[in-house]
C-alpha cells in the first residue's frame, strides 16, 4: 500500500534490492541507476518497433517504470492502449496510480491518467451489456459511489503528503463534478469530512479553496433546485398528462428539499470555523482570505435565492405554491436578521483580534480585513 | 495539451500563441475559447487551470496572455485580477509566490510579474488616468534583488530559491522575469530600471510571447505573406 526509496548507495549484500515489509515496498537506491535506464530503454525500443514485447511484459515494464518515475507519459499511454484493447483491467491502473502517489503525491501525469481511467469506467457503466471484467458486482450507482469514496481518500492522502497540493485538490473537484454530479448530499458530506482536515492544515490554501468550491456549488444547487421544484409545479398544473414524466425530476428536487439545505447555517458554521482557527493560529493569510469570501457569500446568497424565487412565485396557483413558498419565506425571514447580525459580529471579531494579537502578520491581516469590511459593507 | 491528454488553460495559450504568430488565427478556431478562459477566473481574482480551480500564477499568465492575443481581456474582472497578482509579491523576499500562502519561487518572477505589463496595456486601452508612464504596478527593484541575490547558482544558471538546484526551466523564467522588471514600456515610452551595474541589463522580452520583440515582429511579417489556410481539405 506504499512505495519508497531506501537510501543505500552501495550494494552491501549479495541479495535483491527489493524489500517488502508489512505491505510496503522499498527499493534500495543503488539499483535505480541500473534498473531505470534498462526498463526505459526496453520500452523505447518497443515503441520504435525495434523490439517486440508481449502484453505481460509490457504490463510489467510499464509498472516498474511508473513506480520509479510516474511522470513518464509514454508508459501511461502504453497502458491506455492495453486497457482499450481489453488486455488490462482499468482498476489495476487506479491501484498503480495510488501506489505511485504515495511517493510522488503531485505527479501530474498520474492524476491525468487517473481521470482518463475513471472516464473509461463511467462509460463502461452506462453500457451495462458490455465489459464485466473488474465489475465490483454491484449496481452502477453503488459502484460509482464506491469509486467516488475511494477517490476522496486518495486525494486526501496525497494532500497530506504535500502542502497545498494543487493537483490532488483539482482532481478531487473534478471527481465531484464528473462522477458525483455535485449532488447536495455529496457536497454536505464533503464539507463535514474535510472540516477536521483543514483545521489541521491551516495554511493549506488549496484545502480552504475546496471548501469555497463546495459552498459555492451548494449555493448554485439550492437556487437551481428551488427553480426546478417551482417550475415542476407550474408544469403539473398546466399539463396533468405530463405529470408522470416530470415526477422523476420532481422527486430528485424534492429529495434535495427534504435534505433541507440550511444554507445560511452552513455559511454561519464556516464563519465560526474560520474565526476559531484565526484565533487559535495567528498569522495565516489563507484563513483571512477564506473569511473574506465567506462573508461575501453570506451577504449575497439569501438575496440571490430571494430574487430567483420572487420571479417564479408570481403567477402561481396558491395551493401548489404553498410548499415551495413556505420554505423560502422561512429562509427569507431569517435573511434580514442574518444581514444585520453578520457584519456587526465581524467588526467585533476583527477589533478583538486587533486589540489582543501579538503576531505582526496577524495584525496586518486583521487591519486589511477591517478596511475591506468597510469598503464592502459600506458601513 | 495533446491528443487524449489533459485540458487546461495552458493549451489555450499555446494554441493562441502559435496561431497568432503563424497567421492561422481564425474566429472558428477559437470559438468559445475566450469565454471558457474567463470562467477560469475565480473569486480570488486569479485564474485556475480549469473553471472551479484555485487561482495559480502559471495558469493566470496563460489565461491572460491568451485573452490578450484574442483581444478579449475585457471579459475578465481586471480589478480583482490586479488585486490578486499584486498581493503575490512577497514583502520580505521581493520575489513572487504562485498562490496565496505559499513560498516564493524564482519562476513566478515571470508568470506573476509578467501579468503587470499585460494589465497595464489592458487598463491603458480603457483610458485609465491613474496609470503610471514609467513603472509597472509592482516593485521592480525588489524583484531584481531577489533574482540576482537569491536565485543565482554559483556554477551558472538560475533556480527557484536558495537551496534548490538549477534547471533550464528556472533559468529561463528567472531571466524572463528579470527582463520584465528592468524594462517598462517600449519605443518612446521606454524606461529602464536596472539594479546594480549597467551590465546587469538584459534585452527586453515581449510580455505576451516571452521572446524578443523583434522576433515577434519578424515572425508575424513572415507568415503574413502566406494566406490563412482554410479548413477545407485541399
From TrEMBL, chain A:
Gene Ontology molecular function terms on file: protein prenyltransferase activity
Keywords: Prenyltransferase, Repeat, Transferase
GO cellular component labels: cytoplasm
SUPFAM superfamilies reported in the protein's UniProt record: Protein prenylyltransferase
Transferase is among the record's keywords: yes
One Pfam family linked to the record: PPTA
Coiled-coil regions listed in the entry: none
PANTHER family associated with the record: PROTEIN FARNESYLTRANSFERASE ALPHA SUBUNIT/RAB GERANYLGERANYL TRANSFERASE ALPHA SUBUNIT, PROTEIN PRENYLTRANSFERASE ALPHA SUBUNIT REPEAT-CONTAINING PROTEIN 1
Entry's family note: Belongs to the protein prenyltransferase subunit alpha family.
Identification of the protein by name: PTAR1 protein
Organism expressing this protein natively: Helopsaltes ochotensis
Phylogenetic classification of the source organism: Eukaryota, Metazoa, Chordata, Craniata, Vertebrata
Gene assigned in the entry: Ptar1
UniProtKB/TrEMBL annotation, chain B:
Keywords, alphabetical: Metal-binding, Prenyltransferase, Repeat, Transferase, Zinc
Record field: catalytic activity: L-cysteinyl-[protein] + (2E,6E)-farnesyl diphosphate = S-(2E,6E)-farnesyl-L-cysteinyl-[protein] + diphosphate
EC class of the enzyme, as a word: transferase
GO cellular component: protein farnesyltransferase complex
GO annotation, biological process: prenylation
Domain Prenyltransferase alpha-alpha toroid as annotated: residue spans: 1-211
Record-linked Gene3D superfamilies: 1.50.10.20
InterPro entries per record: FTB, PGGT1B-like, Prenyltrans, Terpenoid_cyclase/PrenylTrfase
Keyword hit for Ribonucleoprotein: no
A Pfam family matched in the record: Prenyltrans
The protein's Enzyme Commission number: 2.5.1.58
Protein family (similarity comment): Belongs to the protein prenyltransferase subunit beta family.
Summary of subunit composition and partner proteins: Heterodimer of an alpha and a beta subunit.
Protein name: Protein farnesyltransferase subunit beta
Amino acid at each position: 500500500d506504499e512505495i519508497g526509496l531506501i537510501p543505500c548507495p552501495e550494494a552491501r549484500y549479495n541479495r535483491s534490492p527489493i524489500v517488502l515489509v508489512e505491505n510496503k515496498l522499498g527499493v534500495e537506491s543503488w539499483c535505480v541507476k541500473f534498473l531505470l535506464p534498462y526498463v526505459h530503454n526496453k520500452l523505447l525500443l518497443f515503441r520504435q518497433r525495434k523490439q517486440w514485447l508481449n502484453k505481460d511484459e509490457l504490463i510489467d515494464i510499464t509498472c516498474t517504470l511508473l513506480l520509479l518515475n510516474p511522470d513518464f507519459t509514454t508508459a501511461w499511454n502504453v497502458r491506455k492502449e492495453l486497457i482499450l484493447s481489453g488486455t488490462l483491467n482499468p482498476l489495476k491502473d487506479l491501484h498503480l496510480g495510488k501506489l505511485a502517489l504515495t511517493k510522488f503525491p503531485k505527479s501530474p501525469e498520474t492524476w491525468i491518467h487517473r481521470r482518463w481511467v475513471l472516464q473509461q469506467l463511467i462509460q463502461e457503466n452506462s453500457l451495462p451489456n458490455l465489459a464485466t471484467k473488474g465489475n465490483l458486482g454491484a449496481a452502477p450507482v453503488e459502484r460509482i459511489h464506491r469509486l467516488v469514496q475511494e477517490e476522496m481518500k486518495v486525494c486526501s492522502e496525497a494532500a497530506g503528503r504535500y502542502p497545498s497540493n494543487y493537483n490532488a485538490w483539482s482532481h478531487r473537484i473534478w471527481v465531484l463534478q464528473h462522477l458525483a454530479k455535485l449532488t447536495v448530499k455529496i457536497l454536505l458530506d464533503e464539507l463535514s469530512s474535510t472540516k477536521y482536515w483543514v483545521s489541521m492544515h491551516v495554511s493549506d490554501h488549496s484545502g480552504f479553496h475546496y471548501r469555497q468550491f463546495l459552498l459555492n456549488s451548494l449555493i448554485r444547487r439550492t437556487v437551481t433546485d428551488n427553480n426546478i421544484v417551482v417550475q415542476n409545479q407550474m408544469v403539473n398544473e398546466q399539463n396533468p398528462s405530463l405529470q408522470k414524466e416530470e415526477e422523476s425530476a420532481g422527486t430528485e428536487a424534492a429529495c434535495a428539499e427534504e435534505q433541507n439545505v440550511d444554507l445560511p447555517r452552513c455559511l454561519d458554521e464556516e464563519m465560526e470555523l474560520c474565526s476559531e482557527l484565526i484565533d487559535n493560529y495567528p498569522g495565516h493569510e489563507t484563513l483571512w482570505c477564506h473569511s473574506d469570501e465567506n462573508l461575501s457569500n453570506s451577504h449575497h446568497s439569501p438575496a440571490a435565492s430571494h430574487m430567483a424565487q420572487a420571479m417564479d412565485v408570481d403567477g402561481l396557483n396558491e395551493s401548489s405554491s404553498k410548499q415551495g413558498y413556505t420554505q423560502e419565506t422561512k429562509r427569507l425571514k431569517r435573511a434580514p436578521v442574518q444581514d444585520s447580525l453578520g457584519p456587526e459580529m465581524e467588526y467585533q471579531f476583527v477589533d478583538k483580534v486587533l486589540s489582543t494579537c501579538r503576531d505582526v502578520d496577524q495584525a496586518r491581516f486583521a487591519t486589511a480585513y477591517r478596511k475591506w469590511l468597510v469598503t464592502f459593507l459600506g458601513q | 495539451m495533446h491528443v487524449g491528454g489533459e485540458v487546461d488553460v495552458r493549451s489555450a495559450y499555446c494554441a493562441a500563441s502559435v496561431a497568432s504568430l503563424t497567421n492561422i488565427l481564425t474566429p472558428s478556431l477559437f470559438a468559445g475559447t475566450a469565454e471558457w478562459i474567463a470562467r477560469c477566473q475565480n473569486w480570488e481574482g486569479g485564474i485556475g487551470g480549469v473553471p472551479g480551480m484555485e487561482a495559480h500564477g502559471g495558469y493566470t499568465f496563460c489565461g491572460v496572455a491568451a485573452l490578450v492575443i484574442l483581444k478579449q481581456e475585457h471579459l475578465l474582472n481586471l480589478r480583482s485580477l490586479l488585486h490578486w497578482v499584486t498581493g503575490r509579491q512577497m514583502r520580505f523576499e521581493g520575489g513572487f509566490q504562485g498562490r496565496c500562502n505559499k513560498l516564493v519561487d524564482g519562476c513566478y518572477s515571470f508568470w506573476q510579474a509578467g501579468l503587470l505589463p499585460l494589465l497595464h496595456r489592458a487598463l491603458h486601452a480603457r483610458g485609465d488616468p491613474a496609470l503610471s508612464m514609467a513603472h509597472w504596478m509592482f516593485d521592480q527593484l525588489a524583484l531584481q534583488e531577489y533574482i540576482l541575490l537569491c536565485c543565482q547558482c554559483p556554477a551558472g544558471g538560475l533556480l527557484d530559491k536558495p537551496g534548490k538546484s538549477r534547471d533550464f526551466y528556472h533559468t529561463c523564467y528567472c531571466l524572463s522575469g528579470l527582463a520584465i522588471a528592468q524594462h517598462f514600456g517600449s519605443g518612446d515610452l521606454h524606461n529602464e530600471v536596472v539594479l546594480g551595474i549597467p551590465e546587469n541589463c538584459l534585452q527586453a522580452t515581449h510580455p505576451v510571447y516571452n521572446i524578443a520583440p523583434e522576433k515577434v515582429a519578424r515572425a508575424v511579417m513572415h507568415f503574413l505573406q502566406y494566406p490563412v489556410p482554410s479548413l477545407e481539405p485541399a
